[in-house]
Amino acid sequence: MISDLERWRLILGEPASGMVPLDAENAGRDAALAWLYGRDEELERRGIRRGGGGASTLTTVDWLDDVHRLFPRRTIERLERDAVERYDIQEVVTDPDVLERVEPNPALLRAVLRTKHLMNPRVLALARRIVAQVVQELLAKLTTEVRRSLTGTRRPTPSNFRLARNFDFQGTIKANLAHYQPDSKRLLVERVRFTSRTERHTEPWQLVLLVDQSGSMAGSVIHSAVTAACLWGVPGLRTHLVAFDTDVVDLTADVTDPVELLMKVQLGGGTDIARAARYGADLIDSPRRAVVAIVSDFYEGGNEFTLVRTVQGLVEQGTHVLCLAALDPDARPDYDRVLAQRLADAGAHVGAMTPGELASFVAERIGR
C-alpha cells in the first residue's frame, strides 16, 4: 500500500527526493516513471519529473517488464498510451520483443495502424494479436449497445399474448386505479395489461459509412469498422463501409472480419472527401431509405464546392446525410468548422456520435 506522501513523491519525481525515502519497489516505480516522463521538457520546466544528467541504461523492453511488474493494469495502459502517443516511442509497436510483452489496448491499436507499413512480416504477425484482442473487446462491448437500438420496439396496442417481457407495468396500473385501497395502500389488480412487440424494419434500408483514413481519424476508423461489423446482418439494413484518402477503397466485403479490414487500412495521406461522397451516392438504390454517414475531420484536400453540392443533392433526393467529426466514444474532434457549417447549411446533420448514437439515429429513421 502506497502512502499519500509516497504517491506525491512518485508524481513529482527527483525534485521531491527529500520528501520521503523510497523502498526498493517504489524506487523501481520511480525509475520507470523517470524513463518515460523525464523526457518531457514541459514537466522539467515546471520542476516535475526532471530528467537525469546521464544516459538511461533501460531499454524499452526492460522498461516494459518493470512497468508490468510494478504497476496495476489501469496504470500500465496509461503508461503505454503515453509512450506511443505522447512521446512517440515507436519501439512499443515495432520491436518484436516489446510486442510479445505489451498489453493490448485501444491506444496501441491506433499506434499499430499508424506504423504497420513499417513492420516486417514477423512484427506484423505479432501486431495482429493486438488488433484481434482489442477488436474482440470492442465487439463484445458495442454489439449489445448497437443491436439494442435497432431491434424490436413495443407498440402501445394491447396484446392477448401474455409474456413476462411484454408486461405493461404503467398500463396495468392505470387500468386498476379504481381498485386502489387507501387504508392498506394496496392496489388490487384485476386486469393485467400486455403489449406486443414488432420489428422496426419493414422495408430494406442502406447505411453507407464513408470513413476518412487520415492519421488523425484512427479512433474513428477503428470504431467505424467495429460498428459496421455489429450492424452487418441486421434485418432490413444493408451496410457499406468505404475508406478514403485521395483514393476510395470499398471494404464492405471485409466487414464481417474487422481484424482483416483494419489490417488493410492505410492511415495517412491526403483527403478527397468529395470523391468519397460521390462514390457513396452511387451506391444508393432507394434515396429515401438511405443514410450516408461521412466520418471525417473535413479538412478537404479535394473540391469543397463539389462536396457541398453532392451533399445537397443527397439531401434533396431524400437521403439522410450525417457529417460526423468523430465516431468514437472518447474523441475530442478537431475539424474544419467552416466547411462543416456549409455542409449543415446544405441540409446535413453535423456533429460527433458514439456507435450507439449512430445506431439510434438509423433506428429512428427505419422505424418511421
UniProtKB/TrEMBL annotation:
Coiled-coil ranges (or none): none
Family matches, as InterPro entries: LolB, Uncharacterised_CoxE, vWFA_dom_sf
Record-linked SUPFAM superfamilies: vWA-like
Name of the protein: Uncharacterized protein containing a von Willebrand factor type A (VWA) domain
